[in-house]
Write a structure and sequence with these properties.
single chain; 91 residues; alpha+beta; 3-stranded mixed beta sheet; 27% helix
C-alpha cells in the first residue's frame, strides 16, 4: 500500500524519502466462527509535503487504494481504514 501511495504522490511531484513519509499500521484479529481472522487494518500515514502540495496529497490519498494490488486482494475480506497527518514544509 505504501508503494502504491508513493507512486501516486510521485505523480503529483511529491517526494517520499523516509524522513518525509512513514506509516503506522495496526490490525485487529477476531474470532469468527472459531477461526482467528484479520478483520481490520488501520494505516495512518505521516507525510511532510512541499508548500502548496497538501491538496495534491489529499487527492492521491483519496484514490490510491483502488489501484493498490495488496489492498484490492483483501478488500471485501478485511476492512482497510486509512488516514493521514499531512504537514507542509516551509522550503
Amino acid at each position: 500500500m505504501m508503494g502504491t501511495l508513493a507512486g501516486a504522490l510521485a505523480g503529483k511531484k511529491i517526494p517520499t524519502p523516509s524522513d518525509r513519509y512513514r506509516a503506522e499500521v495496526e490490525g485487529d484479529i477476531e474470532n469468527v466462527n472459531n477461526i482467528l481472522k484479520i478483520t481490520r487494518i488501520r494505516v495512518k500515514y505521516h507525510l511532510k509535503v512541499p508548500k502548496g502540495k497538501t491538496e495534491a496529497a489529499k487527492e492521491a490519498l483519496s484514490s490510491y487504494l483502488a489501484r493498490c494490488p495488496a489492498a484490492q486482494s483483501v478488500i471485501g475480506c478485511i476492512e482497510i481504514l486509512d488516514d493521514a497527518i499531512i504537514e507542509e514544509l516551509e522550503e
